[in-house]
Amino acid sequence: MDLAYYQDYYKLERTHWWFVIRGQLIQRLTKQYAAKNQPLRILNVGVATGRTTELLSALGEVTSVEYESSCCTFLREELAMEVTEGSVTDLPYQDGSYDVVCAFDVIEHVEDHQTAVAELQRVCNPNGLVFVTVPAHMLLWSHHDIVNQHFRRYTRSELTGLFSEQIGKIVYSSYFNALLAGPVLMLRWMTRLVPKNWVRSKAGSDFTILADDSLLNKLFYKVLAAEVKLMPRVSLPTGTSAFCLWQKGAAALN
Predict the structure, then answer these.
(1) What's the rounded Cα separation, in Å, for the pair 171 and 246?
(2) According to DSSP H, which parts of 67-112 are helical?
(3) Using omega within 30 degrees of 0 as the cis cutoff, is the peptide bond preceding 237 cis?
(4) Which residue numbers delimit the Methyltransferase type domain (predicted)?
(5) Residue 95 CB contacts under 8 Å (≥ 6 apart), including other chains
(6) Can the peptide bond before residue 183 be classed as cis, meaning omega within 30 degrees of 0?
(7) What is the Cα gyration radius of the chain?
(8) Contact status, residue 28 vs residue 230, Cβ threshold 8 Å
């Protein structure tokens, strides 16, 4: 990827309604479920242009991992952010190294997602937390998934099922972006009928369709912000994304 792509994506991660709300969700749930012994040792796998690392840094010391070498270069040269180039399927860390292990919209990019989840669990310490988000429902599959190099989208049960092989428990899972799932589905179907470059900018995904200062961007933010306030009291029955928080069993390394 070239510099212009990452500059475009950098802006999206900090201004687009979906990214902003996802960031609030990440902070809210990490504070709720992570161990209270601050500061936390946090591993953030698949950091993209770094916004999730910035958010998690308020909770502890964050180690950032990114697969794409060009993205690592962007982070180092443009943001002066320390990052390790590596893969979620082969993390270069010892067993039980981190209190919180995160992979936000990462494992859908990996063909062997079971190995990816096993690696996240391996480097998590006993009683630590693994926090994963993914795109939901193959019904929503579109050019957005293709350009972002996804292998699949998930139901919530498919996501939680990936965590069944090690000692631990799901402490909370849900869909999110439920209130806008219908409009997003309609948008995905409608954009199949027009040339892709009519509605998308450099990054190429559906995230680029709305300008960050548009009325719809602001409206969608308010709608989804109301939804996040319900969490973690409820688990939403559907949505465009899903997430899972898994706590490692204390006996897992014994």
Answers:
(1) 6
(2) 69-79
(3) no
(4) 43-131
(5) 122, 123, 253
(6) no
(7) 18
(8) no
Summarised one tens digit per residue, pLDDT across range 211-232 is: 566 788 889 899 999 999 999 9
DSSP 232: T
What are the structure tokens assigned to 141, written together?
């599959």
Name the residue with tokens 């443009």: 78
User: What range does the domain containing 193 cover?
Assistant: 3-247
Tokens representing residue 8 in the block:
């475009």
Phi-psi region of 137 (alpha: psi -120 to 50; beta: other; left: phi over 0): left
pTM: 0.90
Asked whether residue 252 is domain-assigned, the answer is no
* Cβ neighbour number for residue 159 with a 10 Å cutoff: 23
The first and second tokens of residue 58, run together, are 């308020």
Q: List, for residues 11-37, the tens digit of each pLDDT value.
A: 999 999 999 999 999 999 999 999 887
- For position 188, which CATH number holds? 3.40.50.150
Structure tokens belonging to residue 179: 């209130």
Burial per residue of 120-158, b for 16 or more beta-carbon CB atoms within 10 angstroms, e otherwise: bbbbbbeebbbbbbbbbbeebebbbbeebebebbbebee
Residue 99 located in a structural domain: yes
Please report whether residue 70 resides in a domain: yes
Classify residue 234 by its DSSP letter: -
